[in-house]
């Protein structure tokens, strides 16, 4: 069974849910807090792919896993980051703004970054992996932009029904992702277990370095505590479902192996971010105001 037929409905539902969250306030946040938005987007769109590139080289990942890890880093923040931001007492409005903007911008940056990565792998590792840029762009528009647009229009035309649907999707989103991870794990169990050590360390390094980089960016921009926490989460938490969809899509890479780093990343990401949330309340008010 091709797991792409499981991940596609999950991804479309998540993007539809994100679209329901979008309103004028989400994008008005760009004008209200430009420094925070710039810091968050720099972390997600520039710093994170660079970190993934360095981690992939440092761990000497095989070409297919190197591209898989970089693919995760190129994806936008997941809609679950909004929930994590709320639990961390961060700036939820900023989280929604960053998730929305990164989801739109990465429609175009994913083909660019992955195209460069594919050429790098071909030159330095001798592994020719084709990237049909046009098909990737079309798939991103169909799977990401259109569900977001439909969600936003649904909210505009049927606000009460949209709230109910949003609550329902919010309850089923995480179990659906865990089901996806379980199905994928069963299908590729031997490959995942064989590479779990190196990929787990690589994914952990990527997440921790991304969170540290997000915290550093927020400090450089002199942002307040709640905003810093949100940027740490947004930079450290990417849309693994989208990475799996791109990797396993018959139109793009058609590679289950390339999706393995995304599954490992999703598991490690939840452990790291739940630990991050657990550690936050232990900070005193004075300490927390200085920490991420």
Automatic annotation (TrEMBL):
It comes from the Bacteria. The lineage of its organism: Bacteria, Pseudomonadati, Bacteroidota, Bacteroidia, Bacteroidales. GO terms for cellular component: membrane. Pfam families: SBF (PF01758). InterPro entries: BilAc:Na_symport/Acr3, Bilac:Na_transpt, Na+/solute_symporter_sf. It is a multi-pass membrane protein. It is found in: Membrane. Keywords: Membrane, Transmembrane, Transmembrane helix. The chain crosses the membrane at residues 6-23, 35-59, 65-85, 92-117, 137-156, 168-190, 196-218, 230-253, 259-277. The keyword Nucleus does not apply. It comes from Alistipes shahii. This is Bile acid:sodium symporter family protein.
């Amino acid at each position: 069974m091709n797991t792409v037929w499981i991940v596609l409905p999950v991804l479309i539902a998540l993007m539809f849910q994100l679209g329901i969250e979008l309103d004028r306030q989400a994008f008005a946040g760009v004008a209200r807090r430009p420094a925070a938005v710039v810091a968050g987007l720099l972390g997600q769109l520039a710093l994170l792919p660079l970190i993934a590139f360095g981690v992939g080289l440092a761990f000497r990942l095989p070409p297919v896993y190197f591209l898989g890890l970089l693919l995760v880093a190129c994806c936008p923040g997941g809609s679950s980051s909004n929930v994590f931001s709320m639990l961390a007492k961060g700036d939820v409005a900023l989280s929604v703004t960053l998730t929305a903007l990164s989801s739109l911008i990465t429609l175009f940056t994913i083909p660019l970054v992955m195209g460069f990565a594919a050429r790098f792998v071909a030159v330095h590792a001798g592994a020719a992996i084709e990237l049909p840029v046009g098909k990737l762009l079309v798939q991103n528009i169909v799977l990401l932009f259109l569900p977001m647009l439909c969600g936003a229009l649904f909210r505009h035309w049927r606000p009460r029904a949209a709230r109910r649907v949003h609550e329902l999707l919010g309850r089923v989103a995480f179990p659906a992702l865990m089901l996806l991870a379980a199905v994928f794990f069963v299908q590729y169990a031997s490959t995942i277990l064989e590479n779990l050590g190196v990929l787990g360390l690589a994914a952990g390094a990527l997440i921790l370095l991304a969170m540290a980089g997000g915290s550093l960016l927020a400090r450089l921009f002199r942002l307040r505590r709640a905003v810093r926490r949100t940027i740490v989460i947004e930079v450290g938490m990417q849309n693994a479902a989208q990475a799996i969809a791109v990797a396993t899509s018959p139109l793009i890479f058609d590679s289950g192996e390339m999706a393995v780093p995304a599954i490992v990343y999703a598991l490690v990401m939840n452990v790291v971010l739940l630990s991050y949330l657990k550690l936050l309340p232990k900070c005193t008010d004075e300490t927390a105001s200085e920490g991420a």
